[in-house]
Amino acid sequence: MDLSLPRLRMLRELHRRGTITAAATAMHYTASAVSQQLAQLERDVGARLFERRGRRVQLTDLGVLLAEHAEGILAAVERATQAIEEAGESVSAKVTAGVWASVASGLLPDALTALARTHPGVVVRSRELAPEETAAAVRDGELDLSFVIDYSNYPMTWDRSLERAVIAVERLYAAVPAGAVPAASVTMAELAEHPWIMSPARSHFGHAARLACQAAGYVPRIDHEVEEQATAMAMVSAGLGVTLVSDLGLALRPPGVDVVALGDALTRTVSLAYRTNSGRRAALLLVVDAIRTAAAQMGLGADTALPAPTPPSTPVPAPTEQPADPPSDTTQHATQHSTGDAAPPNQRTGAVPAATTAPAPETLGSNTERLGLT
C-alpha cells in the first residue's frame, strides 16, 4: 500500500472540516482537485473510505480510522524533518510563513534579506492571507508560522496548540483629511461627528475600531467599508471620512492626509505564531529572530518605546461640505486584507450573509470514478 502524504493531508482536512469544499478552501485547492486525489487515495488503500449521506460525502468508519492515523503520521514526518534539519552542520530548511500586506511589505523584505546573508540554507516562502485566517492555518499545518495581531481593546483567544513570539507593538493613529483636525492629538469621542472609513466588522481591525468608537460613547457612521488600507487612505485624502492607521500603515499616506495621535492610546501587538511541537525547529527560530530584529531596527520592537506620533501638516481651509446622503450599505471587496495593512515608512463578530442558493451536493463515485462535486 502506497500512502501519499499530500493525500493524507487532504483526508485529514476532510475529517476536520466535514466537506470537500471546506477542505479544498483550507488547502487552497479546487474542490475537484481534492476530490480527484481522495478518489486516488481510496484506490491506493483498496477499501471504501467515503460514502454519500444526503448532500455530503462523509468518511466511512475505515476512512475515520485512516484519518486519525494520518494525524500521527504527519506529526511524525514534521518531527523527522526537524531532526534532519538540526543534525546538519548548517541549517537548511524551507519555512512557509503566513503574512498580510503591511508585514509582507514592511517587515519581511529586510528580515529575509538579512537571513539570506547569514543563513542561506533557510528558504522562506510566504503566503498572503487575511489576518483572521493565519492562526488557523498554522494550527492545521498549512503554514509553519504566521503573523497574528492582538488589539489592546480586542485581545485574541489563543489556541493551546500554538505558541507566539511578540515581534512589534504599534500605535494606532487617526488619519484625517488635511486640516480637519488642527490639534496635535484627538480623542475618539472628538471624531464622532466625522464619517468613518472602516474594515468590515468580521475583521479584527474593523471590530477593534468599532469597539473604540463604542467605548467613546457612540456608534460610528460608516460611509465606506473597505478592505485595503490604500483604499481607505485615498478616501481620506478625498475628504470622504476618517480612518485608523497603524505604524506599518503610515507609508501609504497620500497627500492631503494628516496623521494625528490618539489620546485613547490604542495599540496592536504583532506576533509570530507557530505550533508548540515545532517551537524548537532551528530554521523557524532563525526566521523569528530575523523578523524581530527587523522590527526593532524600525523602532517597533516589543521592548522599545512606542514611536512619537507624526505631526499634522500645516492646516489648510477645509473644503465646503455638502449635505451628506444617508449612509448606505456598501459592497464588500473580495480581497482578504484588513484596513491598516500597508508598507512602513523607513470569535469575531460580523456574520457573513448566507448563500441565497443551496450548494451543489457532493457526490461519491465508485472506486474507479472521481469523488467530486456535481
Automatic annotation (TrEMBL):
Residue ranges of the region described as Disordered: 302-374
UniProt-recorded name of the protein: HTH-type transcriptional regulator GltC
Family: Belongs to the LysR transcriptional regulatory family.
Protein's UniProt keywords contain rRNA-binding: no
Compositional bias ranges of the Low complexity kind: 349-361
Bias (Pro residues) ranges: 308-326
The entry's keywords: DNA-binding, Transcription, Transcription regulation
InterPro entries given in the database record: LysR_HTH_N, LysR_subst-bd, WH-like_DNA-bd_sf, WH_DNA-bd_sf
GO annotations of cellular component type: protein-DNA complex
Domain called HTH lysR-type: residue spans: 1-60
Record gene name: gltC_7
Residue spans of biased composition, Polar residues class: 328-339, 364-374
Domain of life of the source: Bacteria
MF terms in GO: DNA binding; DNA-binding transcription factor activity
